[in-house]
Amino acid sequence: MENIVKKLDLTSLRLFVAVCQEKNIARAAAREFITPSAVSRRIAEIESTVGLPMLIRHHRGISVTPAGEVVLRHAEDVLASLESLGAELSSFFSGIRGTVKISANLSSIVQFLPEDIASFKRMFPDVRVELEEQNTIEVIDMVARGEVDFGICNDIPETDNFTKLNYRADRLSVIMSRSHAQAGVAQTSFSSLLEDSFVALRGDSALTALLNTKAKALSQSLNVTIGVTSLDALCRMVDAGLGIAVVPHLVGEMYVNTLDVAVVPLKDDWALRQQVIVHNAGAALSASASKLVEFLAEGA
């Protein structure tokens, strides 16, 4: 009996259950689209494996022996478990269950992604989203290395090597003390601020690199007096009177009512930025990742 699991196959068990449910070999055969003789042969194989009769055949159909009742009960459990397995696996294929790994830049995480992912999770609660913050260049590198399903970053020339969809647009603004000479203007230009001291994100921040590039194009340099690692710290340094800072407009607005600062939009063309979703063109996204990409792109 120790080899019974190896010898009983799922097709035979399914046909045995059908016969027991129909109480008739011919009706079970018709239900399973197989010949009655093939069903009888399968039942005989089970009886040979178990070493006991499973069915009693008579002119009105069949009845199940006590040993057959035991096999029937376990066969139904096995088939039900496999159906449950199939249903759970199909949820991965359909995208309603799975894990999605994203790398995103600070601007998109602070301004847009929390609300967007929360909305997505309300629709697909069984999809797990793993989000990692990186600067734009590292986002692109992580996508290229296949470490994440897709990335969200600024639309820069390096993103042209990937499949790319628009996500959100944001505008850069200047956050400054309310006592600053330009605190009350409707908008300002970057060039008019280059005599000021700046607080900036340090390291390889894409925003700081952009500001340095634009200052250099004006034959000037960015006078950075202090570098910080987060937009929150950036705004608090401005509130402390350590300089002005360029931030995404929505980030600056978050602090207007809590800090002694003003937010003035930059009117320069480059201050309007496009955030994009990027993923490898040659690699197919999982069903869950595809659903999230579609959801985020539709929000754009």
What do these coordinates show?
- The chain is an alpha/beta fold and 300 residues long.
- It has two domains: 4-94, Arc Repressor Mutant, subunit A, CATH 1.10.10; 100-275, D-Maltodextrin-Binding Protein, domain 2 (3-Layer(aba) Sandwich).
- The protein has twelve helices and eleven strands.
- Strands 3, 4, 5, 6, 9, 10 and 11 form a seven-stranded mixed sheet that branches.
- It is rod-shaped.
- The mean pLDDT is 88.
Output the keywords.
300 residues, Arc Repressor Mutant, subunit A, D-Maltodextrin-Binding Protein, domain 2, seven-stranded mixed sheet, two-stranded antiparallel ribbon, 12 helices, 45% helix, transcription regulation, DNA-binding, LysR_HTH_N
Topology:
Blueprint: H1 4-7, H2 10-22, H3 25-32, H4 36-50, E1 55-58, E2 61-64, H5 66-94, E3 98-104, H6 106-111, H7 113-123, E4 127-133, H8 136-144, E5 150-154, E6 163-177, E7 198-201, H9 206-217, E8 224-228, H10 231-239, E9 245-248, H11 249-255, E10 261-265, E11 272-279, H12 287-299
Parallel strand pairs: 3-4, 3-5, 7-8
Antiparallel strand pairs: 1-2, 5-11, 6-9, 6-10, 6-11
